[in-house]
Amino acid sequence: MSQASRVSRTALEWVDGHRDSFRLPEDVLDPGADVNRTLKPLGELAQLTLSIRAHSDPGSGRHRRASELLEFAWDQTRHGGLFLDLLHGEPFATYPLEIYAAFAAAGLRHAGFEELAGTVRRTRGWERIEQEPNRRLGVLNSERRVGLPPYGEPTAALARTWLGGLPEPWTFERTAGYGLTHVVFHLTDWGNAPHRMPPELGDYLATWLPAWLDTCLEAEQWDLGCELLAVAASLPDIPSYPGIARTVEAAWSRIAEVQDAAGGIPENGAGRPHEPPRDFAYCYHSTLMAAFAATLADARLAAVQEGVA
Fold this sequence. Notes:
Mean pLDDT: 92
Structural class: mainly alpha
Strand content: under 5%
Number of strands: 0
Number of domains: 1
Helix content: 55-70%
Low-confidence stretches: none
Number of helices: 14
Largest sheet: none
């Protein structure tokens, strides 16, 4: 078993053990409720467990656990009814569609939500929502997943992002890092379609990703480091970039060193043996992301060995 596989297995066990922390509160629809503490974690659970399930063997424990967590997340949304309520309350907010899209990609759908979303989608107001370029890419991908006509071209949205401009590598910093990882996730549909990445973008990332990844791990930015590992596993032609493989192998050893005995990984800061308190908010995203990135890495490695990637 690879280092990445061990990290993924124990990380997913941690997520499953903290399932109750993803439950939505009764006041989730209250205007004063903090979406970042309620719907955001649940949406991330849905997207990343969907991806883990898609890239793991159907008969494996990893696949089974991811499937159970995805079903749990769907139950929390009242089988999609929550999204209809959200859309009634905030018709021009994009996050209900973005979260729902992960479930739709899994075949979990709500007809009422999709009917209303289709109506809102046809308004001039929806087409002119002001967003960060990488978020625009995310909405376009969400529309595609749900089956709605996209209101723009991904290539145009990509050109307006930091990564799409192939910037000077020394301008990389934390905010740019999270922006670039999500550009890749939306562009490749969370690693499902690496061929959608333009060749020049793949070459640029293969050249500079090792240095950026080393920088993040040296600074103990484990969450961003795991996101960059997922980007490395999303490159369109992995065998063409041997330097990436060496960097990734060393990086997974670093991640394993900070993973606690229960499988949790802190977002940043010192890990073992000087572990900070492992509360849910401090660990859930980095732990989920590690499970996703490692599963994707295993799947791409297997495809390379079979000569299909």
